[in-house]
Write a structure and sequence with these properties.
Helices cover 69% and strands 0% of the residues. It is built from 7 helices and no strands. The protein has helices spanning 2-15, 20-42, 46-58, 95-117, 124-149, 158-183, 187-196. The termini are far apart.
Length: 197
């Protein structure tokens, strides 16, 4: 019966003529399939039932069981109205994290002013603190972008890869800043030379 209904549906699309029997069948089938989907989602063994149902649905002679509806995709446990899970509470990712972000942002103002007044070669510790603060501030900003737009629940492969790429890049920049401040002229002296060039 299902194959005949599909055949009639294909013919009605080709002829562009409404078929009243087909319209009645589609409304009834829709209600039946929705009821089967609800029963499948409520069943305890839905992943096990899906494999058998898919095999039964593909054979022309077998009819799938009443409690199974397989549209041809993954079966998701629960419904769309189920709440999302919340991460466990952590002060490190809550108010302390927010306060640290604000502290770094606010500290950049006097550090930048002090670096502009002094020379990096005379005050290497100030130059190092400014460089580390800039890198940490940039890392926090890019980490927020990655967390907002490449969440691991939506992007299970790209999200963690981008997060670890950011961490590796930040580590590389910190090593480079250390090398540049200890073996070369330093960040503040570089900026003053570029500014006056």
């Amino acid at each position: 019966m299902y194959l005949r209904a599909c055949d009639r549906l294909a013919r009605s699309f080709q002829l562009l003529e409404p078929d009243p029997d087909l319209q009645m069948f589609s409304a009834t089938a829709r209600r039946t399939l929705l009821a089967q989907n609800r029963a499948l989602l409520r069943s305890k063994y839905s992943p096990l039932v899906v494999g058998a149902a898919r095999m039964a649905a593909t054979s022309a002679s077998a009819t799938p069981p009443e409690s199974v509806y397989v549209p041809g995709g993954p079966v998701i446990q629960g419904t769309v109205n189920d709440p999302t899970t919340f991460p466990p509470p952590s002060r490190g990712h809550g108010s302390h994290h927010w306060a640290f972000e604000r502290l770094v942002s606010a500290a950049l103002i006097p550090l930048t002013a002090a670096a502009a007044v002094t020379s990096g070669s005379q005050y290497p510790i100030l130059d190092g603190i400014l460089a580390i603060s800039l890198v940490v501030h940039s890392h926090i900003g890019f980490d927020a972008v990655v967390a907002d737009y490449l969440d691991k629940r939506k992007w299970p492969i790209v999200g963690p890869i981008s997060k670890w790429t950011l961490r590796a890049a930040t580590t590389g920049v910190l090593v480079g800043i250390y090398q540049f401040n200890t073996n070369d002229i330093g960040l503040t002296e570089l900026i003053s030379r570029v500014w006056t060039a």
